[in-house]
Each structure stands twice: as structure tokens, then as C-alpha cells.
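anyone seen this seq b4? input:
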Amino acid sequence: MVSFELKSGLQGARRLLRALKLPMVAPSLGGGAESLITLPVDTSHAQFTPEERARMGGIPEGGLIRFSVGLEDAEDIIEDLQQALDAV
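predicted toks r here
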């Protein structure tokens, strides 16, 4: 599991998720063997205001991405993430 933010902010994070081919965009990072990716500000924390998220310890408005890496070939995951980052 990794979490990261892009310098391009929330809109960049949304573009990244649209550009990815391998991980499934999911509302949560459940227990499957496949790679899953989520943007908490749009899913698990969407019902909270920015102020509430800040008080909860930081789901930033900048587009925090959570990526649960699955059992796919590591090189396939790296290549897919790279092409999506290049698209942002």
C-alpha cells in the first residue's frame, strides 16, 4: 500500500486514475489480489467538508491517491503507472 499526492493537485489525480489501465479504481481498498487505486476525497471521505477532513488528520484537497499494489507482474504495474504519470 502506498499513498501519494501529485503536484498537479486534485485534477491531476483524477486524470491519473482515468489514464491507468491495470489497477481497478475502487471506492475502498478491499482484500483482493488485484491492484486497486482510490482517490479518498472522491470516495471514502467525499461526505466530509475540507475542514472536517483536515481535523481528521489529513485527507488533503490536493488529491491524495491510495494505491494497493496487487499480484500482477511488477514490470506491468510500473509501466502502467509511468504511462499514466506521463499523461498527467
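The beta strands are 2-4, 24-25, 36-38, 65-68. The chain has one domain: 2-87. kinda curious what u guys think
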